[in-house]
Amino acid sequence: MKINVFSGLLLIMLTTLGHAAEFSRRGAQVTVHHGDWTMQYALDKGTGTLTWHQTPVLKAFHSEALRKGEMAALNSEQAASRDANWEKIIDPQRRPGEKLTLTSRFADGATLALHLWFFNDTRWFLSDLTVTAASEMAISRLAPIVSGFADIGPANDKRIYTTPYSNNFDFGVAPVNDFGLSQNGTDRFANPVEPMVKFNGVSHWVTALFDNQSRHGLIAGAASVQKWKSSQKLGEARLANGPLTAFALYNWGGSQRGTTVRSDLFFLGYFTDYRDGLETYGKIYNQGEPRLNWNGAVPVGFNAFYSHDSYGKTRDMEDITDYIAAHLKPLGYQYVNMDGGFQPESYPQGMKDFADYVHQRGLKAGGYLTPFTIYENWLDLPVDNTGYTHRDACLHDENGQLVKTYLGTYALDMSHPAAQYIVRRNIKNDLAWGYDYLKLDFLDMGLYEGHHHDPAINGMQNYRIGMKIMRDEVQASGRQVYLNASIAPLLPAAFTHGRRAACDTSLGVAAYSGIERQALNSAASWWSNGTLYDYNDADMFLPEQLLQGAGRLGQLAALRLATTVALAGGHWLVGDNLPFIDEDRMTWIKNRSLLKVAQAGIAARPVSMTNFYHAGEHSPAVLVRTDGDGGSYVGLSNWQNTTQHWRLAPAGLGLTANTPYQITELYSGRSWPHQGGEVAYSLKAGETALLHFSRQTAKSTSEAGDLLHGKSAIAGKNRYEWDLGQSTGLNQVIIKEPAPFAIRNYTLSGFDGAAWNKLAQGFIVGDKRTFSFPDIQVRRLRLDFASHDGPLTTPTLEAYQQQSSVSSLKITEDSIGPGMKRTDIQGNHQLMQTFKLSHSDLPKIDFWLFEHYVDAVPGDNLRLRVVELNAQDRPSKTLFTAALPPFNLPANPAIYSVFPRLSGLDTAKRYALIFSSEGSRFEPSGKNSYGVLAGKRSSGATGRLLISIDAGKTWQDEPQHTLLLTFYSHATGGEND
User: Fold this and answer.
1) 3-class SS at 444?
2) Residue 29 CB: number of other CB atoms within 10 A?
C-alpha cells in the first residue's frame, strides 16, 4: 500500500466503500460522474462544465492565479499542455472518495494544478489550486473555479445570498438580475466612507444561488481558511431568473511567496433545499477545522454596555450584581459582563476585585478585550521588559507608516514578538483575574494587510496567530471560559465558542433600524449555530434602552428584539439598567418560557427569505426551530406598517400534517388547541409573537374582552378621557400611543363615581404600556399629561379584568406634583428624603428627574440608595442602590421610576431615599448637575428632607422642603413571576 500526504488528505490506493465517483477519459475529454453531478473537462481547452441532473450549473469554467505585480493571470485556458490524474482517497475528517487533478503547464515552466475532491455519497465536492514555478514567485490571488455562467436550472424566484466580510457589515439577499446596494465593506481603516452603492457581487466566505419558491440551490464557499481570505464573485444576470454572468471561488489578501503556493479548500454543493445546504456546508467546514466546543450552559445574564456605556463604575456594577443575585439568579441568570466602558476602582487589582465580588454572589464575571489594537498614547511606552515599545508591535503599510484603524487606534502586527507578547499577556491577565467570559471585540483589526515584521505573513495568517494565542491560553488555563467574537470575520471559526451575528443593535444601516438589522443578520446566519460555532450571538436584549432617554424603545420594538435574540441560538444578555426597567417590561426578562427558548441555544431558520439588505426588503418574518420533543417554536414578526396575515403549512413549520398540537403564545401565555392543517395567524403593524407548537395537551386560555371596546377617547386640554358607561370592575389598563411618542409626564386615573384616583404615572407611554393594579370599580378613565413633544396622536386605551404576568402595584403614598428645582446633587452634596411605610414592601418609587448641564456632564452617575435609619434619622444600613448615567436625561423635570423590589420591611422603622453623585465636581452655582423636584413640607408630614455637604458624614434638616416622591406596594403581597 502506498500512502502519500497531499493537502492534508491521505491518498490511499484502495477500493472505496459506498457510492464512489466515476472517472472516464476519451481523448481530450475527461468526465466525472458524482451522484447527480457530472463534470466534463476539455484538456485541449483548459475549461470544464458542471451539471446537476442535466441542468447546467457552471459553463466553461477555468482556473487562474495572479502573480503579484502582474496584470495578467496564469489561466488554464492559456496553458501549453494539460493532463489529468485520478486517485482514490480517504480523508480522516470526512470519508472515502476520489481526487481528480487537472494540471495545466505553461511555456515559462509554471503549472496550475486544480484538485477536485469527490467524497462518496455526498451532494458536494471540494476543490483547491496549486501553482508552481522553477523560481520563487509571489502570488496574490488564487481562483480554482472561474466561470462566466452559473445557474440552478428553471425557477421562478432566483436569488443570491451573500455573507459579509465581518459583522461590521451585513448579510444580503437579492434577485439574480438586480443585485441592489451594499457598503461593499472589507478592511475598514481610519475615517471610513462607506455609503450604500451598487453591490459589487463579492460575497465573503460563502454564498448561495437559490430559488425562493422550490428552495433548491447551489452553495459555494470556503472549506478551509488557513492561509488566505476567501470570497466568491457573482455577476448579475441579464434577465429575471436568468443565469449569473460571473462566478468565481478565489483566495486573496496579501501574497504568498515560494516555488509552490497553494490555495485553501473550497466547497461546492447542490441541494434540494438551500437551507439544508448551508447547514451541511457549516458541518463540512467544521470537519476540516473543528470548532471550539463549549461544555457549559448558554450564556444568560447582563452586559453593561447599553446600560452604563463609559460610566460603568465598579461600585455601580457591584450593585447590579447584587440585584441580579437577588432577583434573576433563580431564573438562570449567571453572567455579569463588563464591556468597553468598565471603570474599575484601580488597575489591575480592581479587575480581580470585581470578578471576586461577582463570584462571591454565585455568579460569573465577564470581561472585555480589544486584542489587536493599540492606543496612540501607548505607542512609545515600553512593552514591559521585552526591550520593545508598542510602536514596534504595530503594523506598517507599504510606505512604512503605521496602519491606523477606524477607531483612531493602531493595528498590531502579530508576526512581531512584541505583539504576540501583548496579546498573550492580556489574555493571561483576564484569566488570572478570574473572568469566566471574554468578549473579544474589533477582531477585524487583526485582518489588515500591510508590511508585516515577517514578510511571509498576510492578514489572515496575522489573524490566526493572535486568535490561536488566545484560544490556547484559555485551554491551557484549565478553566471554563467562554470566548465570544465580535466585529469578526465569519471564518475561520475554530477560536471562539460564539460569534456576534451583526453590528451593535444601536446601529442601523440604510433604512433599517438597529433592531431589524440585528434580526435580518441573525436570521441569515442561523446555520452557523452548532456548525461553525457552538452558539450565535444576537447582541443583547434591550427591554427599554433607558440610556437613550426620550428616545428609548417602544414596547413593540423591544419585543421584536426579544424574538430575535431568543431565536438567534446562543445568548440572552440583558443590556438595560435593571433597577429602572418598567414593571411590564420586566415580565419579559422573567418569562420562564421565553428563557427556556433562549437557554436551548438553538437557532431558528427562516421559512422563506426576503430580499433584505441588498434590495431593502424587510427581515424574514417567520422563523422556526424544533423544540426537541416533536413540536416547534415559531417566531412571527411584522416589520411592516400594516397588519399582516399568514397561512402557514405544517411542513414549513417542521410539524406533522393532520396532527393535533397545542399552541401557546409565549409573551401573553395564551394557549389553544390546533387540530391540524394550515395555521392562520395575524399581527398588527410592529407586533411579534413566539408560538410553541407542542404535542402535549394543556389547559386552553383565552384573552379577556376589552372593556373599552368601541369606546372613543374624549379629548381635552392635555387630557384624554374614556367613559365606560357604568361602574365597571377592572385590574389592568393598556395604553397604546402611536410612534413617535409625544406624551410627556402622564397620569392615569380612574373615577369611581365620587373622586378621581391616581392609578399610575410616568414619563413616556410608548406603544403598549401595561399597568396592573388591585381590582377597582370605575366609571371613567383619564390620561392627563403635562406636555407633549411634537404633534399628538390620540392614544388607544384598553381595559381588562384578567390575570396578568405584569406585577400588580398600588400607590400607597403620593406627593408627585409641581415643585421647585434642586440641583445640589454633586460632589460631597447629597439629598436624603426620610419616610415611613404603611406596608412591608417597596417595589417601586417615582421621582422627578432632570439634568442641568451647562458646559459639561457630571463626572459620575446619579446614585439612588434606599437606607434604613437609626433613631437619630441617620443611615444605618443600605438596602438598595442603583445608578443612572448622565446620558440623554431630560432637560425638563420628568417622572422617573426606580424599582428597589424590597420586601420584609418593618412598618415601625424609618427609611430614606438618598440622591448622590460623589464623583461629580461640586459647582456652587449648581451647574452641570442632576436635578430633582422638592415641594413645601406640610405640617403633618412624616418624612423630612436633609442635606449633607460632607458626603453623608453629617446631615442638616431642610425644614421647609420635602422631595416629591410616590411609593407603591404589591397588591397581593408579592411580585408576579
Assistant:
1) helix
2) 13
